[in-house]
Records
---
Amino acid sequence: MSVERALFAFGGVMVMLTSLLALFHNALWTWFTLFIGFNCFQSSFTRFCPPAWAMKKFGLKTEAQMAVEHGGAGPGQPRQVL
C-alpha cells in the first residue's frame, strides 16, 4: 500500500470514527472532524501532511517510489519502451 492510498484510508476511517463518536458519545467530537478536514485542505496547498510524514517514517513508499522500483517512469526519468 502506498502513502497516498493509506492517507485516503486513514482520513476516511478518522472521519467515520469521529462522526460516530459525535453521534453516540458527545457532539464536541465534531471539532476533531473539522480539524481533519482543515488538515486535508491545508495540505493540498502546503504539501505538509503530518500523517504522510509518519507513514513514510514507518516505511510506506509513495506511488512514485513504487513505480521506479517496478520499472515505471519516476519523476524526471524517461519511460522504458518494451
---
Amino acid sequence: MSTHFARDASPVRRRVLISGASFAGPALAFWLHRYGFAVTIVERAAALRSGGYPIDVRGTAIDVVERMGLLPGLRVAHIGSKRLTFIDGEGRALAEIGPEMMTGGRDVEVPRGVLTKMLVESTRDDVIYRFGTSIEHLVDRGEDVEVTFSDGGRESFDVVIGADGLHSNTRALVFGPESQFEYPIGFCFAGFLTPNTLGLSREAVCYNVPGRVAVLYAVGERPETVHAFLAFAHPRLSEQEARDHDRQRRLTAEAFADGGWKTAELVEAMLAADDFYFDTVQQIRMLSWSRGRVALVGDAAHAPSFLTGQGTSLALVGAYVLAGELASHADHTAAFAAYDRKLRPFVELNQARVDQGRATLIPVTQQQLEERNRSFADMTSSDMTSSDNTSGDMAPIDTADSAAAPTVDFRSALSLEDYDVTVTRS
C-alpha cells in the first residue's frame, strides 16, 4: 500500500517524477520545487530507511547543504569521531589516525538516517511522496513520459529522474542491464551491527590481512552496538550469489575462516545478524546519464563506491546541478546536456580516487599492507611532533608519493553556479 503526504501538485507546472527517496531524490526535489516544478517522489521501501553506515558530506556538497539551510542541523548531528586505529592480529595499535588527517575542516559525518530525515522533512509539505511504490513500466512518448506504477496506477510526467541508487530500477528499464555499466573493484563486503565488546567510543578500529579487512565503528559514546564491516577480495558475484543471502553469508565466513584477531567472533555475529547487508564494491560508469525525457542522478548515474568516500556528496551536488539546469532550459534535452557537461569532470575526478581508497582500506598483498602501515606510522609520528596538522584542513590520506598527488582537492573541485531562473514549460 502506498503512503502519501503533501499537497497536490499544480497542473500548470512542469511535472517531474523522481524514483528514490534517499539523498539525491529529496535533494533534487528541494531545488525543483524552489524553481516552480511539481514533483512526485516514489520510493520502493514502505517508509524512510533510518539505519545504515554513517555518511560524509564534504567539499562542494557542504556548499549545497548550506544553501539548503541544512548545515546547522548537520553540524549538531556531526558524529565527531576521535580516531581510526589500525591494529595487528593481537589487537595492538600499528597507527592511529586523527580526524584532521582524514577530512577537511568543513566536512561533516552524520548517521545516514539523520540526513535522509532532514532532506525529506525539508520537502514533505511541497512534494508528493509515495512510499511502497516503484516504477514498473514507462514509455517516453516524445511530449511526455507515461509511467505505470507497481500499485497499478498510471500517470504522465514531463521528465522522469532515476535517483534509485547503485542497482537502479529506472536505469535498468530505460538504459538496459546493470552489467553494461558496472565497473567492478574486485571486492565484496558485509555489514551488520554487533555488540560493543571492546568498549569503543566515537572511534573505529581496522584490522587487515592481505585482501581482507575487518572494521568496527562506534558512533557516539560507548554505544551498546557498533557497525561491523567485513570486506574481502572476490572478482564478481554470480547471479545465484547476488540473490542468495545464505550463500553471501557463507562466502563471507569462508573468506575470514583464518582471518585472525576477532574475525571468528565477527563471523559468528554476521551469521546470526538480522540486519545483514551484502553487496559488491563497484562503480557505475555511463557514457550518458540521460535518454529522451529520462535522466539519472546520484549513484544510479555514477556510483563512485564507498572507497572514495564521496557517494553522498556527489549525489547532493548532482541534484543541485540537475535541478538548476532543468530550470534554466525550457528544453529537457539541452538541460540534460548541460548537466552532463558541467558535472561529469567532477564525477570522474572523484571516481578516480577509488584506487587510493582501495590501497588505504584493503591492500591486496603483504607488501602493499606493510607499505601502508609504514606510511601511516610515519604520518602518525610526524603529526605528534608538528603543529602543522592541527587546523583540520588536510586532504584525506593518500598513501601515494606526495609528489604525484593531485593538486586539486577532488572534494571541492566544482564551484556551484547561482541559478537565478524563471521556469518555462518544456
